Amino acid sequence: MGARVRVFLNHEEERTLWELRSSRTVTQRVKDRAEAVRLSHQGWYVEQIATHLHCQAKTVRKTLNSWKTKGLGGLWERSGRGRKRSWNSEDIEYLEHCLRKEPRTYNSVQLAEKLRLERQVNLTPEYLRQLLKKRGLFGSVHE
Q1: What's the pTM?
Q2: CATH placement of domain 11-75
């Protein structure tokens, strides 16, 4: 069993965390973190909270320590997480230019190959099709 970590809340903080439970604009992870903080305030042990939320005790400790240092902001994910783009907007603009100026038509496989050879950007034809569809160019790309 690790060191005892306990959070104490004032009335306003407890009310805010309670309201987060029913919010439709926050993710389930944030709701679970808010619940962990509330349960700690109510005297639950880290291991009990972990069992209740179906997570690891280490995760609960991290959440409680984050609450202590960052407050409410510590419940949300840091920005910049996840995989970074392998392409930039100039790459898609280049394809748009090719589709509008060149007399031939391309399918998504050919466009993905063109992007790979000419701009050293590897995108799957399916993902490229989604990007072009969002930009209103889906009619120019044939499957």
Answers
A1: 0.59
A2: 1.10.10
